[in-house]
Each structure stands twice: as C-alpha cells, then as structure tokens.
Amino acid sequence: MRRWNGWGDDTIQAHLPPGASEFLSSQVGVPVPGKDADLAAVCAQIEREQPSRLTGAWAHPLVETGAEARLRGSYGQSLGDWIALRHGRIGRVCDGVAFPEGRSQVRALLDWAAAHQVRVIPCGGATSVVGHLSPRADDPSPVLSLNLTRMRALTDLNEAAQLATFEAGVLGPDLEAQLRARGYTLGHFPQSFEYASLGGWVVTRSSGQQSLRYGRAEQWFAGGTLLTPGGQLDLPPLPASAAGPDLREWVLGSEGRFGVLTDVTVRVSRLPEDERFLGLFLPNWEAGLAAVRELAQRKTPLSMMRLANAVETLTTLKLAGHAGQIAWLERYLAWRGCGEGKVLLFLGLTGPHDQVVAAQREALRVVKAHGGVSTGQMLGKKWAAKRFAGVYLRNALWDAGYMVDTMETAIPWGGTTAMVNALEDAGRAALAGFGERCHAYTHLSHVYSSGSSVYSTFVFRRAATVEEAHARWWALKTGVSRAIVAQGGTISHQHGVGKDHAPYLGAEKGAAGLAGMDALIQHFDPQGVLASGNLR
Amino acid sequence: MRRWNGWGDDTIQAHLPPGASEFLSSQVGVPVPGKDADLAAVCAQIEREQPSRLTGAWAHPLVETGAEARLRGSYGQSLGDWIALRHGRIGRVCDGVAFPEGRSQVRALLDWAAAHQVRVIPCGGATSVVGHLSPRADDPSPVLSLNLTRMRALTDLNEAAQLATFEAGVLGPDLEAQLRARGYTLGHFPQSFEYASLGGWVVTRSSGQQSLRYGRAEQWFAGGTLLTPGGQLDLPPLPASAAGPDLREWVLGSEGRFGVLTDVTVRVSRLPEDERFLGLFLPNWEAGLAAVRELAQRKTPLSMMRLANAVETLTTLKLAGHAGQIAWLERYLAWRGCGEGKVLLFLGLTGPHDQVVAAQREALRVVKAHGGVSTGQMLGKKWAAKRFAGVYLRNALWDAGYMVDTMETAIPWGGTTAMVNALEDAGRAALAGFGERCHAYTHLSHVYSSGSSVYSTFVFRRAATVEEAHARWWALKTGVSRAIVAQGGTISHQHGVGKDHAPYLGAEKGAAGLAGMDALIQHFDPQGVLASGNLR
Fold first, then answer.
1. In principle, which of B42, B81, B123, B464 could form an S-S bond with B75, CB 3.0–4.6 Å?
2. Which residues bind substrate (chains A, B) (predicted)?
3. What is the ipTM of this complex?
4. 3-class secondary structure per residue, A202-240
C-alpha cells in the first residue's frame, strides 16, 4: 500500500548504501533519528479536532469523509508535508474526497460545490512538492479534494497521427503500460513518474528526464477538455496553428485555478528502436558547462543531458556503494585528466538505431573536445535502472535522521554558475541560522540552447521538535527562493508554483502579468470554487 | 520603391516563364488583362472622399496624414487588397500613420489615442494576407496606423545564451543582416521574409520555411515587452519555466488586440556550417505522404520538408521554364518509377556538417524505401535561390490576366488527403459559380509528428469589373474557409486570423474559448483602443 507519510509503496524499503552514513555525518554531523507519528492516532486526532463539514445537508454520495482519505487528500511530497506527517502535527485537511469516474461526475461535483460554496482542489497522484493539495489555513470554506485517479482509461489512439487520448487521472506506469501494449510511449519520465498523473503533468508544466527528445508537457500536450466552473473548454489536437492565442496555454500551468482537466490528448511515439544512457566525466564544472551548452546549441539529437556539479558527482560516487570499484574508476579517470573537481554527465540517446549511432558519435566528439572521458553505458544503465528507485532513498535518509529538500529553477546561459553558487550558499546560510550544516549539491537536469535548469539538493539533520524542523525547512525554502529571484531565474522549472512558491511568482510575471492572470481566474471562476490559493 | 498595389520593389519585374501562359490558359481559359488604377488618382480620391480626421485638435506631431501614407497603411497583400488597389476601388482607410522611434513614443501614442478615442492598428511590414490593416467599415472612430518599422535596432546580443533582442519593427533582411554580422541567424524565412517584421511574426504566430530546425515563432520567441493600453507586460527570456501560465502566449497570436509589441528577444543560432536542399520525387501522393510522416515521426533532424501534390508538382515543372531539361528529367524519373502522378519533395538539411551528413543518409534511406528518387541538390538550389523571388510572380500573373490566392490550414494525419481534396474542390466550386475554371494545387509546407499544414494555391482569371473580381475572391475565401472548418482543420497554420478569418475562429476555439479571449481583451483594453476587429 502507498505510504501515508513518505514516498512510495510501503513494501519497498530502501537502505542507505554502505559508507553513506559516514559520508553524510562528515558533511552535516551525526544525526539523531526519532520516532514517526502513528496513522491511527493522526486519524483520530483529525476526527476529533476537524470533523468533516461535508455531512448532513452538505453530504454528497460521491464524497468520502473518512479521516484517512481526508488526510491522504491533503498532503503531497514536499519536505514541509513530510515534517507535518512524520511528526503528526497535522494542519488543516480537506473535508472530503471525491473519486469521480468520468467527466459527467466531475461536472456534477463542480456544480454541487458551486451551489454549496465548497472549495474544490483537483488532485492527481498527490506528488506535489510545492503545497498544492493542502487547504488554505485562512479560508473558512469547506474543502473538497477532487481526486481524478479513477479516471484512467485510454479512450482513443490515432495511430496515424500518433495521438493518444487518456482520462486525465491516469498515473505514469498505467499510462505507459496501456501505450506499450500498442507499441507506443509518451516518454515522459519525471522522477515522480510512478505516482504522478497525466493531468497533473499538464497543469504544472511538467518536464521528464528525456524531455529533450519527447518534449516537456507544453510540447506533447496536444489538446483536451477543461471543465471550468461555468463551462467547458474543448481543445482540438491540431499539429500547429496560427489562429490567435493558443488556448492550451490556459490549461498548461493553470494548477487547477481555471478548471478541472478531465481528458488529455498527447503526442506519443513508437517505442524506440534503441536507447542508451552514457556516463561521461569532464575535468571540471566549466568544461562540463561548455560541453552541454555546445551540444544543445548544435541541436545534437539527444534525449537527455544531465550534468552534476563536482559536489553532486562526489556525492553520487560516495553513495553508489561498491567503494572498491569506484576507487578503481576514479584512478582511471584521474589518469585521463578527470581528477578532483571532475563532473559527471549523463547523456541519453533514444530513437531509431541509425540516429542514435550518429548522435552518439557527434556527442562523444564534442565532449572529448572539452576534455571529457566516456565510461560507456555501465553508469548510465545503473542510473536508468534506479531512476525511480532513488526517490525511496528519502525514506531511508529520514529514518537515519536526515532531511532532504530540493529546489530548482532555470536561467539563461551566462548566469548558471552564479545561480548554482547562490542556491547552495542560500541553503547553507539558512541552516547555519540554526547552527546546522547543510550538504548542498547541484545538477543541470535539463539543457536548452538558451540556458538550463538548475536543480539543487540540500541534506541536513532532522530536528528534535516539529517546530524546529518546520522552521529549518521554511528558512531553506525562503532563502533559496529569494536567491532564485535575485539571480533572475524562474521560481520553478519543473515543480510548479502551488502555495509554497506563490509569493515569488510576481518577480517573473510582473504586476501586469499577475493582473491578467487574476482577470482570467475571475472570468472562469467568478465564485472562487477553485480558489485553492495555488498560483494566486 | 515598394509597390503600392502589388508585391515588392517596383524596380524588380518578374516575367512569366516561357510556356506558362499556354499552360495556365489550358487550365483556366484565356485571360483578359486590364489596366491598373493610378496612384495619384487614388490619393486624390482619398483626400476628396475621406479627409483625415486626425487634424486640428486631433492632430499629433508624430502622425502623418498624407493620403499616400494612409493608403499604404491600410492595405496588406491579400487578394482582396490587391483587387481594391489595382481597380482603384478603395474602401475605408486609416486617418493617419505614426512611425514611432522607440518604446516611449509608442506609449505616448497609445495614451494619446486613448484620450482622443482614436482606434490604433499596429502595423509591421504590411504583408498581412488576412485583412489585418484595414479599418473596420462599421466603426466610426478615427483610426491610427501605428507603423513600427522605424524601430529596428538590435539592442542586445547575449552570445552565451544565443539570445538577441530587437525592436519589434525590424524587417526580415535587416534582422538577418544585423545578426549575420555577428555570426548568427534567426533562421526564420517565411515567403514574406523580405518585407515582414519581427513583431508581426510573433503576434501572428508565424512559421518559416525552415521551422523544422529553427522553430515557429512560438519556439524562438523568448520574451519581450508588450505595451497594453493600461500597462506594460515584461516577459523575461527564460529557457523554460513551470511557473504558471506562460505569458508569452498572451503575445503570440494576439494580433494587436492586447497591446503593442515593442521589443522582442529571440533564440538565435550560429550561422550553419552546412546547408542543403534536396529535390526528391516519389511515385505518387500516398507514397510522399507516408515518407514525410515517417521522417517527422522518427524525428530525423531536417530543417525543412515540403511535399507538393501531383498537380503542384506538374505546375512547378511547367512553370520552371527549361522545357527541354525538364522533359529529360521526367523521362529519367519515369524510368525510375516516378511517372504520371509523381510528387516533388524538398528536404532541407541545416546545421553542423556531421549532423547534416547523418540526417541526409537517414532521410534518403526512408524516402527510397517509399519508392523515392533523389535528384540531388540541383532543384533544391534553384528553389532556395528563388524562395523570395517567387512572390513577385504574382505581379506578373496579375499583369497577364490571372488572379492568385492561397489558403492554408493544418490537420492531424489521417485527414490530410480529404483536406487537400476538400480545399481544391471548394476552390473549383467557388469559381464554377461564376462560370470560371480554377487551377488548384497543394503542398504540405510544414510537417509535424502528429500532422501537417495543407497549403493550397488557386489560379483563375481576372474579372472585367471590380465587383465581379471581389465576388470571385470572396466566394473562394468563404468556400475554402468553410471546407477547412468542415474537415476539422485550423483556420490558419501560418497566415493568422485578421478580419478575413475571424468568422471561423469559433469553430476551433469554442464558445468558452472565445469568451475567455474576450475577457482578456476587456482586461487589457477596456476602452477598445485596439479594437481593430482583428481576431474578434
């Protein structure tokens, strides 16, 4: 069963690799693990302190009001969510959860909510890390979590046009299985793939690890249906159009504020003939940066570029286990010019065999010109095999006494290194305020011709009290968000805005942009049925 | 000097190639050329019948009110525009033209217009073929044409990020010259390249011939500044973002209804190391269609795919001149299996040499598997050399007694052939209503994994009277537009909406979509300063 207070299935238990604890202790200090809150106790507390208001005259046959469903419907996977759940210090939860089984039930629930002044928060796989799912603390209205995950059917596959239409609540593995049976793939693999939903990817403008070939949500989202409180927006899956504003952009990034996405048509591909992930090392950060920028600007047809900085590279090697093999690898790399300060680059190659071979030849030539050394597919295969298992490590780290958070942005080339330093510095400074050390490291998860994403991870010790834990997380979130804004980056390249990033949205949208967004929200949802506090 | 009543510079005189007239006569009948109206007479008529209202208390130092400037500011390049100008049957023209020389002058003019209830129609290179520039006949307000073409500076070039910022009025050749001097290209080459402006490309979602590599306006438009009647929208050139709705989409396709685009940051590329255009033939339409679809769905890194149907192929060969060489070529092609019904495919390859070589190898293998025959670069070189000269042929055709119009759409694969037939049939039926024949032919100008554009050309005889000429054009426009809508295509893949396509926009946007667009227009422009009738 899915964990209620951590990542993934509770039959899967990740373990820290040998040496990991020693390495992390050396970086941030010896941790003090603590005991997690108990689910039954938490549910009892919810029933006692916040009884559902969707009962009696406010009941609806599709709305469940059990405490566990309400708890699960109100939290995502942010560190703030974890802290609340693990410590059993629950904030406001929704009053009920509905699991509609089709577009007409969604329509009925939206109409019912409007008539009863109930706030609706649409929910997919509940993998948000930016606070999308929790009711606003300052909002007295009853809140319904509209969980779409029972809407999971492949309703149409146009093989000529490679267009597949799904109900929006389908989760990643289910979606891929339904496509694979017909010989297709969407190719969208964010780290949250195993639990994230298609509709969630669209409304948060999600980016997958191989978006370089398959596209971000913006590129593969071809059309669909958005039920707004007052109407229905039907978007035909045109290959391209110059007919005025592209209304798909009212769905992408809308985060449940304009309507509920019920049906999604996506651009799919035939299952690839060939796929490889190469692990390469470059002598230093600057060389790595120059190599990935050149590859992006040449438009070498790769499916993935992922460049770790020196600290992330070191951390990856330390946490890989197999210390003996790693030592041998590092001796070889040092001999080839990649010693201390070296950086690890993963390249993905996906597609027809001849294209993959040509792209690999081109990519290796470019990387080698920057002093890079290929280690072949061994590390890449390992990375690919563990790409969704890695998230489970967060559970093991928590149990061992560590907290982990990640923050990300994107910025044009020229500002990359300053942004990396600003994020890591801000993370360390935030924890230093508590007398704690923070192990910060960074990779570029997505590379474009004009710039890249910047994705930083922060590991630090758990706190003795929930107040202290929460304060550390919030100081980190605030400090790093401010650093992102100060450096001119976007407040999110791939996680979205939710409530946690909403205060920083104005920095990139401007007053005129926010006012326009408000006008559209007011137009689509004048009653505020969807006024969750996400985005705005 | 630029022609006032046709395409391009009046020192450039195109001539019909030998045999062209005979071929076209055989298709649509012997034409009867007529005499064009005289510019001086037309201007005198404007001064007499529609004196400018932007004089006296309504004068502004930046606004010119001469009749010729007003005439030139009120017409684009649609066939309807040509008919009006060539016959001297002028409709309503604007009351004045301003040529602002910077953002602050645009701001001042917008404020002045709002204060004086003057309608503003932004204008770039005046190459619209969908009626963007003419004042609405039913609108009594004075109209100002806001011509941005004196705003043409490259104001910033970030070489690391390959981001160039221009003032929005820069025309294609000027933009490319300024970039080429620094080693860069935007690579945006629509057929109207020589006179179209950067800002116009953005607000009409323009597509260039090599958009497969360089991207449509949606892909290369990174950010900029839109002056709305009440404010200013500043869009930072982020490489990607998941931070809510992408506000660039309020500029793309806005056609001057939300504001005036003054500054544009674009994603540029290094000048390509290698570029080739290959001419290939396939035995028939179905084979051609299958080949381009496969190339798009494999994501073979080409810069252009352009597939003519059999009638366009025949027409291209007939109008190429060089009958002897063409006959020899056709004998060779017939021997290789491409006889009657053969179709011509141009492939563009652009980029680093090694990438071009690999892509060419892959593309040729795919095309040959569908029975295709490559004729190397000879035809492609000819096409590339004449890519912007071809438009001048419209002048020669008019002089010879023919009218030409083009209509275009995009549709998912599966519907392509039905769409081609529907467009050509609708064109022929429209002219048959006048007892006239119509020579109709089609190519796919842009190919995507999920579908393609469909671009049809219609050649028919000029009429003796302006009323009859206008009626023929309008019957064609109406009939073909209805066919597009009936087949489920977009009302425009690359020309935009303007006033001519506005009645058909609802078919793809839906009532909820149009209402949302109206809400945004109302938000940005409550007074209707920009209520030109374009889009809505």
1. B81
2. 394
3. 0.97
4. HHCCCCCCCHHHHCCHHHHEEEEEEECCCCEEEECCCCC
